[in-house]
């Protein structure tokens, strides 16, 4: 009788931490968590894909307008936003997309004040880290996208969902 043992395979490496996927230093408030959590676990915590708030179509409705020589001007934005089962379209004039989204959420009674904002390269994507407050609590959130604006919008939505979950 011959007994053979397959050579012991090399132990699989532990999954890379979330921080290992980011091409710059993480924001101070998230460094420990990003070093300790796998990519998937970090996203599940800080970029929840479920929650009552969802962002649909996003458009700058006057994006083809030529720049003014008078300095920064408000742009007009339009978004489809769902809160639970209620879906509606919102419009806002603001200096940028984050300000517009924040105004749209405020119209729905969802307070999110951005207290920290960081955009960092993450391979071919942009990772946006937002710390937001509803006046009582504050939460960190992240958004990932190949488009920096979409990354930022996703981070704000994730932050609002985390604040709503903590309420």
Automatic annotation (TrEMBL):
It comes from the Bacteria. Keywords: Transferase. The keyword Transport does not apply. Signal peptide: none annotated. Residues 33-164 form the 2-isopropylmalate synthase LeuA allosteric (dimerisation) domain. This is Homocitrate synthase. It comes from Mycobacterium deserti.
């Amino acid at each position: 009788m011959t007994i053979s043992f397959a050579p012991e395979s090399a132990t699989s490496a532990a999954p890379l931490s979330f921080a290992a996927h980011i091409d710059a230093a993480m924001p101070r408030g998230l460094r420990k968590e990003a070093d300790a959590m796998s990519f998937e676990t970090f996203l599940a915590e800080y970029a929840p894909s479920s929650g009552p708030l969802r962002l649909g179509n996003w458009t700058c409705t006057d994006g083809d307008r030529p720049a003014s020589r008078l300095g920064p001007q408000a742009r007009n934005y339009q978004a489809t936003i769902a809160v639970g089962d209620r879906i509606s379209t919102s419009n806002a004039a603001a200096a940028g997309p984050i300000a517009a989204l924040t105004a749209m959420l405020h119209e729905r009674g969802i307070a999110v004040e951005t207290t920290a904002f960081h955009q960092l390269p993450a391979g071919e994507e942009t990772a946006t880290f937002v710390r937001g407050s509803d006046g009582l609590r504050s939460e960190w959130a992240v958004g990932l996208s190949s488009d920096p604006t979409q990354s930022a919008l996703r981070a704000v939505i994730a932050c609002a969902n985390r604040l709503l979950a903590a309420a």
